[in-house]
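Re: the pair you flagged

First of the two:
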Amino acid sequence: MAQHAEHTAEHAEHAHHAAPPWLYLSVYAALMLLLFATVAASYVDLNKYIPIPGMNIFVMLFIAVAKATLVVLFFMHVWDGTRLTWLWAGSGFVWFLILFLVFMDYFTRNWGPQSLGGATGWE
């Protein structure tokens, strides 16, 4: 019986805390605002204001990362998670950053005019 009491006390320390409904509604409202910001960024040509090629893509990716962070932290309960949970969630973002930096090469390529003739496009 003493072992059961110890196990129950140990389990109570690691119990999940239920977040109040206002927190979920606030995160939902923030996600909706970020959604509208993404749509607005798709209609505005930011290259007129900031002379960096592909600025709209960078802004929309930044907004997407902010939305993903909100979802991971609150809806996936990482905010109240253990250090190991934070480590795994953080490693996912690090992996995303590595892939993003590797494929940034895509924007530096000079594609030139595309050929329509032939199956390989080398003609």
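Second of the two:
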Amino acid sequence: MGLIKHLSSKKFFIFNLVLLGALFGFSLAFLSFSCSAKGTGLFSQGKTAQAQEAAPVPKNSLEVAQNLQIAFKAVADKVQPSVVELKTSTTRRQQLPNGIPWEFFFGPQDGEGPGRRGEREYRSQGLGSGIIVQTDSKTNMYYVLTNYHVVKDADEIEIEAYGERSYPAKLVGQDERKDLAMVSFTTQDKHPVAELGDSDDVKTGDWAIAVGNPLGFMSSVTMGIISAVGRTNGPGGNINDFLQTDASINQGNSGGALVNIRGEVIGINTWIASNNGGGSVGLGFAIPINNAKRTIGEFINKGEITYGWLGVSLAEADNDIKSALGVNGRQGALASMVFQGSPADKGGILPGDFITKLDGKDVRGVQQLQLSVGDLVVGSQHTFTVVRGGAAVELKVKIDERTNDVASDNAKLWPGVMILPLTDKIREELKIAKTTAGVLALQPIDKTPAAVMGLQRNDVITMLNGEPVKDIAGFYKALREKAGKELWFDVLRGESKLETPHYKR
């Protein structure tokens, strides 16, 4: 029975009266709103409600919307078949606590007796996305680009391609610094290869379409814009300069494609910023595809990435440091320390140089310079523009290969300590007199010359090789001109004045 049939006749009458009144009131309000939107009252200028006409719809508005819809559908049709889902399986071990008879429930653990400490082995499953970027027609092999964190430590990898076709896959290569990896699978089935775009042409406000497998939902397509470019400080020390987008990205999108309105891959979706437990809040980040183009060939040919090495320890310069170095308002990266015998050392780059250009292109900051140097070909020569003592200097540097051994040899890092200017805030916190001139030493790096000399955190360096140090510019000037083969400091440590042992190189 309907609602009205459940009501008494009296209630039925009242109900209808209220309903008619509500409908009349709604209609009157709607007409008043429509008329006032045109700049008239309901009965203004002698016109009645019946005389008011609806605002004309622009003739091409529907056509524009339909064309945009067609464009998005074309992007989906083009990109979806080249984006795959990665299913990973990883063997993990969990340490078992003492005193609990796990063997009673799970059987003997690693051959240990009852009640002893052991380990439990279990399988961890993971999901991610990947992009088919290359194929070998002779071997029927397809190469899939994804994130390092998607396949990290995986024992088994399975590819599920568009159309729900599954294939076993194997790891080709991986790199933690760029958070990139490559896997391959072989099949006689035909799969399209993604078209790679130019991420250097991407601008804030451009359309952005994300394609992947969020939370296991295959071939999902979401749309937004590029919110920003050149974002740094990604998770886990990732050295990429990310594209930021508000296209919805969730867990499982990692390794999937971020494409432009032409369906060209401009980025690899990698991480999200979220305060709600990992769900999308419109803050997604993708590795620019140009950061990965050289990587693709290196993974296929060598199984690993070769990085160029300059041999400097870079630091972001805040306004106080920039002011002290005379580079206010300029972008760049501070070469705070230089590895002895490195390409930078041989090419003439010195501690305190503020690097502003690489081969004529502006340096935006530390992370961007690290990425650019890493992509330089080993053995190639490049021009670095630095500001030294207020003047621009161009230096030619021949790039070496970066290895963990050379990049972690702190004994060659000169001088081995980062310094800060004595700002009013630092003086107040450390109770340093305003009349004291010098620079503040941060924690010396282990095994470096500064550490060997016994320099300590929060020492105030007042002299370098007998030369008074008034500020940061004075420190680096004295380091350049006075510390040829020997180095020592006069420092103020608390209320004590000390001279460090001499270091000979």
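The first strand starts at residue 83 and ends at 95.

-B.
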